[in-house]
Amino acid sequence: MGTFTIPLKDVLKFTGGKMGLDNYPIFDEAYRETLNKKIERHYWNREIGHETIDIFLYQMESKMNEIMPLYNQHYKLGLLEADPLSTMSVKSLTQMDSTANVTGTSESGSVSGSKARGVVSDTPQTQLSEDDDYATQLQDNTSETTATGNQTDNQSTLSEGTNENTLTGYQGHAPELILRARQTLVNVDMLVIADLRELFMLIWHNDDEFTQNNFGGYRRYGF
């Protein structure tokens, strides 16, 4: 098939590798080179769909600025990790407050006593009778001491806590859940590439020089 314009690979030769992909918004600047390379390789041998390279570069830059804000959201969603077999996660929190009162009572007591006798007799050789009748002087001293003590201790303990229970799992048929997850997968790179088809004639270049003429061929229109 004949060539009506020039393929992208020749555009890159004339522009030093530029094709209007330097300034469009992208979710991660580190991914720009990867996406640009995929676009370049996909359309490498396709003819551009504009009269001049300048118009093509302008249209490429404009198109990427129009479509990338939406596709950036797709890229960000694709970065989220999701488990197709995790369809529910229920979390419950229980607040626990408790008070413990401890009362202790202790009692102590003691009794002590003493008894003493003092005897004075003018006749020490004579034994005293049981009734102490022969003592000149008799003195009995008796003392008793009683001590009683009570001690009461009251202790209160307040404890607080939170119990957390989490219920996870899935509801439904596992193979069906996996199938539905696969159906939601999207190749965002190919969506971007597909949106750029209108910038090309979709003619595969076969190196024929159909556009060459005495006026310099296609190159005279811009390059």
Quick summary of this structure?
With 223 residues, this protein is of the alpha+beta class. The chain has helices at 8-15, 32-42, 53-78, 174-183, 188-195, and strands at 46-48, 88-120, 137-169, 200-204.
Describe the fold and architecture:
This protein has 5 helices and 4 strands. The strands form 2 sheets. It has a two-stranded antiparallel sheet with strand order 1-4. The chain has a two-stranded antiparallel sheet with strand order 2-3. It folds into 2 domains: 8-84 and 171-220, no CATH class; 95-159, no CATH class. The chain has 223 residues and is of the alpha+beta class. The longest helix has 26 residues, at 53-78. Helix 3 packs antiparallel against helix 5. It is rod-shaped and about 155 Å long.
> What Rg do the Cα atoms give?
53 Å
**Topology pattern, helix = H, strand = E:** HHEHEEHHE
Number of helices, counting only DSSP H or I runs of 4 residues or more: 5
Mean pLDDT: 75
Q: Could you give the topology of this structure?
A:
Elements: H1 8-15, H2 32-42, E1 46-48, H3 53-78, E2 88-120, E3 137-169, H4 174-183, H5 188-195, E4 200-204
Antiparallel strand pairs: 1-4, 2-3
Helix pairs in contact: 3-5
Distinctive features:
223 residues; alpha+beta; 2 domains; two-stranded antiparallel sheet; 5 helices; 4 strands; rod-shaped; disordered C terminus
